[in-house]
Design a protein that fits this description.
- By secondary structure, the chain is of the alpha/beta class.
- The chain is built from 12 helices and 6 strands.
- Helix 6 links the parallel strand 1 and strand 2.
- The protein is elongated.
């Protein structure tokens, strides 16, 4: 590729220059005919290497354009293909202390362990942060978007610290566990439940404390007490939650 770019930049030796004014006065058909004849004349006596350089130089814009179109088509097609894959888990992380060292590969290992890796996609957002006070406001527009997506069943599971769990519960982002989980999965987490207040000030079971699990410790979120809450209400969201709880506690 580097060699080709050098060929693009290097103008080959020609036998004569284009007559720009003459070309402009001709019809398109006449210009093509003249340029073809001139190209043939210019390449007379050239060895194969010189001919290659000549053609590369004079067709470089078309070559670059075609290459860019090819890259865009490939990239767009791949993105479209990936977006249509079923989601094994869509998760968010609140107040991640060190996003650069967050271990997202733990979710790839999880997907492989439950047999939902190949042909599936993992969606993530680790850039969710709340204010360190009690005014119950999001810190920026990205966090407002998080709350909107939560109500639209985008996320399956939210990983958070205690402050984030309190905030999400108060904003009605988390579903109460007793009405969200079936009996089997409620029994799995009943000894790890975290209760906090809802928007009306009533105390309810909103989150699961997974701090003592190997999975939580492997994430490198940056805090020791890790909670999960559930925001999605569709069947796909609930199945993703059940898969995770089975993985953590069975």
């Amino acid at each position: 590729m580097r060699q080709m770019m050098e060929e693009f930049e290097e103008k080959p030796i020609e036998k004569k220059e284009d007559n720009r004014l003459e070309l402009q006065s001709m019809s398109r058909k006449e210009r093509r005919k003249m340029m073809k004849a001139e190209m043939k004349e210019n390449m007379e006596g050239m060895d194969p290497g010189e001919k290659f350089k000549y053609l590369i130089y004079y067709y470089k814009e078309a070559i670059i354009f075609i290459a860019l179109i090819g890259i865009l088509v490939f990239t767009g097609g791949r993105a479209l293909y990936n977006s249509r894959k079923p989601v094994v888990i869509s998760y968010g992380v609140v107040n991640c202390m060190d996003q650069l060292n967050f271990n997202s590969s733990a979710f790839e290992d999880y997907a492989k362990a439950i047999g939902k890796y190949k042909g599936y996609q993992i969606r993530e957002n680790i850039n969710i942060g709340f204010t360190n006070n009690n005014n119950s406001t999001f810190t920026n527009q990205m966090n407002t978007n998080f709350l909107t997506l939560s109500t639209q069943n985008y996320y399956d599971v939210i990983f958070t610290d205690k402050e984030g769990a309190d905030f999400c519960s108060k904003q009605s982002a988390f579903h109460p566990l007793d009405s969200y989980l079936d009996k089997e999965h409620y029994d799995l987490i009943k000894d790890h439940i975290y209760s906090t207040k809802d928007s009306d000030g009533n105390t309810k079971e909103f989150a699961v404390d997974i701090s003592d699990t190997e999975f939580a410790n492997s994430l490198n979120i940056g805090y020791n007490d890790v909670y999960i809450g559930f925001t999605g209400a569709e069947e796909r969201n609930i199945q993703a939650v059940y898969d995770l709880l089975d993985y953590l506690y069975k």
